[in-house]
Amino acid sequence: MQTHDKKMPSSSTPLLYLCLLRVSCLLLLQEAQAAPHGGISLRSQHMALLHWKATIASPPPLMSSWQENTRPCNWTGIMCTAIRHGRHMPWVVTNISLPDAGIHGQLGELNFSALPFLTYIDLYNNSLHGALPVGISSLSALSVLNLTYNQLTGKIPYEIGGLQSLRVLELSYNRLTGHIPASL
Question: Where does it live in the cell (predicted)?
Fold first, then answer.
């Protein structure tokens, strides 16, 4: 007499599939955050902003949310947007808005090349000093740059005139010298 054992699905099979699905999702998420745009990731933007904060003398209370263990999208004065990149929609930093924040530092310490998706910078009425960095000219999506009421010195870089998306440029009440570049 022969008996046929029909294998009954184990109660752990759905759990196994759920675990595999979760691992797959985590791997996809990690891939999307790793380098969605030629090496630019939310992590590299995070590090660029933290580096800038570290160069500021006595970072103001408004920047207390800027911590290593939190996403920049949750920081005061930072806005992120999900942008389409192939099948992914990674988050990128698009706005820095810290008017009247009491920031004492140099804008040139901010690595603009790590923040290529910035469309809006408002650092009105702080104590930013030093030259207006040429690196801002790499921000091809920048539409608003407000640096009014700071202590910026030197000339306005000619390259800023090449920002095709720039609609608002506010630089009054600084210590800038020279002529306004013809490119503007």
Answer: Membrane
| C-alpha dihedral (165, 171, 177, 178), degrees to nearest 10 | 40
Region of 100 please: left (phi>0), alpha (psi -120 to 50) or beta.
left
Q: What is the pLDDT of residues 15-70, one digit of tens each?
A: 555 444 454 444 344 444 444 445 579 999 999 999 999 999 888 999 999 999 99
CATH number for the domain that contains residue 101: 3.80.10.10
- What's the domain range around 36? 13-176
**Cα torsion through 133, 134, 136, 139, rounded to 10:** -160
Helix (H/G/I), strand (E/B), else coil: 97: strand
Two tokens, residue 49: 């902003």
Q: How many domains does the chain have?
A: 1
The answer to whether residue 8 sits within a structural domain is no
Judge whether 118 and 95 are in contact, CB under 8 Å.
yes
Q: Classify residue 128: in a domain, yes or no.
A: yes
Give the closest residue to 123 by CA, choosing from 161, 150, 142, 143.
Answer: 150
Residue with tokens 């407000």: 146
For the stretch 101-126, pLDDT in tens is: 999 999 999 999 999 999 999 999 99
Gap between the Cα atoms of 32 and 10, Å rounded: 34
Give the residue carrying structure tokens 């820095």. 96
Residue 1 domain flag = no
